[in-house]
Amino acid sequence: MTFALHGVGVSRGIAIGPAHIIQRDQIEITEYPVDGEGVNLEIRRFQKALTQARQQLRAVREHIPRQTPGDIAAFIDSHLLMLEDSALTVEPVRLIREMKVNAEWALKLQRDALIAVFDEMEDAYLRTRKDDIDHVVNRLQRILLNHPPLRHELPDNRLAGYVVIADDLSPADTVMMQGEGIVAFATEHGGPTSHTAILARSLGIPSVVGLHQARRYLREDDLVIVDGNEGVLLVDPDEATLEYYREQQRLEKRHRAQLRKLRGVETRTRDGTAIELMANIELPEDFRQVLAVGADGVGLYRTEYLFMNRESVPDEEEQYKAYVKALRVMKGLPITIRTVDLGADKPMPHSRNEGGQNPALGLRGIRLCLREPGLFQPQLRALIRASASGPLRLMLPMLSTLQEVEQSLELIRTIQQEFREREIPFDPDMPIGGMIEVPAAALCADLFAERLDFLSLGTNDLIQYTMAIDRVNDQVNYLYDPLNPGILRLVHEVLKACEACGKPVTMCGEMAADPRCIPLLLGMGLRSFSVHPGVLLEVRKVISEMDLKEMEGFIRKASRKGGGFPFHALYERYRATLH
Ligand code: PEP
Ligand code: MG
């Protein structure tokens, strides 16, 4: 019988194939007592397993394909380091000796103790470390129990055509699976920046994460459909469902071929107005796609990835190198680099702040940066230095007050003055902009625009704060509606304010890529969009089908009706007349 499991789509597309299930975390461990020579035997067995695990990981390390994202290799190195750490080398031996138990049990006790410590810390970064402990401990347990290597770890493994289903993929898994011909990934855990998501996007295959307990309902070789667009995993589909998705695959293939023709093409509306179409960058891997599709630049470079999955803040030099590299890769096209927006759904590993009861309303983005100079200063210095190497635009996230702008500008000017005195090169005209994500800032966009060189509408947060819904809470996401008249009014006001004072404005939230919103945004006067490179060609296509005059006329008419909106209902009626 067909059934569906719902998660989060992190890499688009549809795939159909048999399931290969990685059952790694369900190793049953039993305790048995040992004594006398038995204790020494267990210790030797444990030490042999350590050696073997190190050899396995070193072999994986040596076979990393060239295109593998750098952070995957770094994770394997960190697993190798864990296999040298006394927590995993000395403690289990002590437990075997003192408790007189088998090696597997001692290792399990030590694993539970380590996880309990991490659990108490309640920090999302440390949850990643928890997963790492499990990956390493499971590898040791499989060796101790003489379990056969996992199918995907065999050198002659053939996983071509399979959909891989796992709790989460370990970095070693991701390396082993490259070039295997896997058609999709589906995992129980993970988010858009998990290894699974990174790998799926770089391989260009569909992927859904957050499918809680999926493996409980699945058996090896069950036929499944992964719908990365909708974030759904369909199990045991009937013939009609299969036919429907096969047709969707055919349509997608044709559609993708059509879209490819728009690579490198200038973005213009049907009536010939040029529109700026830039890309959002979340990870360095995205740059390849940005160049392939021919974006006009980067409208949002999220710097959070530089700060995550590590124990300390990246220093000025490391950040400087990353920004200069980005400028070089983009070959003279402008890059808008956003200062780090940690907090809320992007937890801050290195801050003492715990986020409070409502982290989305707490110390995040610019608030956190202004509070913690150790976080903000090295980034500002790195960005200002990097501005000498290319067209860099600095962007401040989550602004709510003008004081935050003044304070940030003051810090920037002070650093620029110091560099001037020390003859450190920088671009004195580097544009400094701010994100409009908080309703209070949207309502005073004219005041923010006066003080800044450009504005960018961050609608992901603007919708969250205007609709009073947590953007990561499944229970209220039905209210997450960019077409809500309240949102449309706010966006329109920001666009009008920028037009009135002649300051450029971009939209870099997901709303900019929503085909239902693009015509309205054009009609309201938006001329600069920044979207994920994976959807950029689609956005270019929608824009090219729009007649600007028609949309402007429609918005004018809609704005007059009843003294304002709702755009949405009027727009639906308008769309109906087009078909
Ligand atoms: C936004 O809020 O719209 C935005 C682009 O920022 P982020 O999604 O990174 O919060
Ligand atoms: Mg935001």
Short overview:
This protein is α/β, with parallel strands linked by helices. Among the domains are: 3-24 and 151-240, Phosphohistidine domain (Glucose Oxidase, domain 1, 3-Layer(bba) Sandwich), CATH 3.50.30; 37-144, PtsI, HPr-binding domain (Enzyme I, Chain A, domain 2, Orthogonal Bundle); 276-430, TIM Barrel, CATH 3.20.20.60. The protein has helices at 37-62, 70-82, 86-89, 91-99, 103-121, 124-144, 171-177, 195-203, 239-260, 286-293, 304-307, 316-329, 365-371, 373-386, 402-421, 439-443, 445-451, 459-467, 485-501, 518-524, 533-544, 548-560, 567-578, and strands at residues 3-6, 8-11, 14-21, 163-166, 184-187, 207-209, 223-227, 232-235, 276-281, 298-302, 335-338, 392-396, 432-436, 454-457, 505-507, 528-531.
